[in-house]
């Protein structure tokens, strides 16, 4: 009887797979490091040499702030992929904030702009060519007014176009994570782009493997139910991509 109960209680470890013939690259948080993004995209191009199947690059969000070239990063993303590649651009919390600030829509939280400046917004302002007095000053109205004038329409449209998640095979790609126990179709945007502890500390099976950024770790954070690939590119110089094909996982990094 004990052996029989043991058989019923034990479940074989699920082998996560992508659809046959697809090679997918998930890129972690770029945060204004156009130089690292270009280097990593070059590595991906080289990795795809000789590959005859389908390919996709999923960017996990947080393209702006902190690094010194946010405008240049959005320039490259707005250009789109080279012929033969497919890109999926997910929304991060930093894009959500920037999109709201440049929209001019009323906001309830008056601390949003000062908080944004503290977490890399000043570098974004400077990347658009704002004078130092505006980029590093405290005149919110003048700085945002100048930013709206200097930000290309393509950037504004891009900020409003990002997706919240991508599902492929046994994988779910999101910026920050998901609320455990909540069906995918019922997940809230705030959790998808902001969640930390409730997701990171959960050890249960989500029903798929979650690939995410948002929470910086020194190395790739590979867990049974999720993999975090935000390796702090803006500060460390290390931008990471997770490479998935069939049931295999590997990594590219600057």
UniProtKB/TrEMBL annotation:
PANTHER family recorded: METALLOPHOSPHOESTERASE (PTHR42850), ZINC-DEPENDENT ENDOPOLYPHOSPHATASE (PTHR42850:SF4)
Short name of one Pfam family: Metallophos
Annotated ranges, domain Calcineurin-like phosphoesterase: 23-217
The name this protein goes by in its record: Metallophosphoesterase
Organism: Sphingosinicella xenopeptidilytica
């Amino acid at each position: 009887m004990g052996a029989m109960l043991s058989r019923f209680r034990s479940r074989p470890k699920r082998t996560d797979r992508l659809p046959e013939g697809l090679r997918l690259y998930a890129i972690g948080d770029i945060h204004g490091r156009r130089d690292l993004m270009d280097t990593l995209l070059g590595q991906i191009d080289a990795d795809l040499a000789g590959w005859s199947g389908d390919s996709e690059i999923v960017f996990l969000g947080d393209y702006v702030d902190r690094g010194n070239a946010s405008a240049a990063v959005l320039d490259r993303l707005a250009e789109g992929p080279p012929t033969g590649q497919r890109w999926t651009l997910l929304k991060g919390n930093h894009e959500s904030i920037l999109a709201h600030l440049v929209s001019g829509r009323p906001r309830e939280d008056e601390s949003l702009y000062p908080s944004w400046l503290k977490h890399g917004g000043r570098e974004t302002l400077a990347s658009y060519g704002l004078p130092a007095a505006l980029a590093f000053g405290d005149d919110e109205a003048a700085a945002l007014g100048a930013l709206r004038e200097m930000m290309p329409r393509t950037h504004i449209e891009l900020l409003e176009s990002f997706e919240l998640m991508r599902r492929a095979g046994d994988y779910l790609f999101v910026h920050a994570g998901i609320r455990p126990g909540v069906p995918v179709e019922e997940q809230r945007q705030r959790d998808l782009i902001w969640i930390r502890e409730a997701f990171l500390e959960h050890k249960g099976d989500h029903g798929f493997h979650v690939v995410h950024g948002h929470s910086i770790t020194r190395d790739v954070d590979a867990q049974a139910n999720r993999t975090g690939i935000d390796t702090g590119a803006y500060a460390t110089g290390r931008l990471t991509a997770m490479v998935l094909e069939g049931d295999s996982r590997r990594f590219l990094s600057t």
